Amino acid sequence: MPTVLRKLRASSEPSLLTSSRSQVPNFEERIPSGTANTFVNRVAWASAHMKQAGLITKPSRGVSVITDRGRSALEQHRDRIDMLVLEQFPEYMDFRTRSRTRPRPQTAEQTESETPEETLDSAYNELREALIEDLRVRLVGADDGFFEDVVLDVLVALGYGGSKRDAAERVGRSGDGGVDGVIREDALGLDAIYVQAKKWARDRTIGPREIREFIGALQDAEAAKGVFITTSSFSSEARDLARRRRIALIDGAELAGLMVDAEVGATVVRRFDIKRVDEDYFAGPE
Question: Among residues 37, 70, 71, 280, which is most buried (max CB within 10 A)?
Answer without folding.
Answer: 70
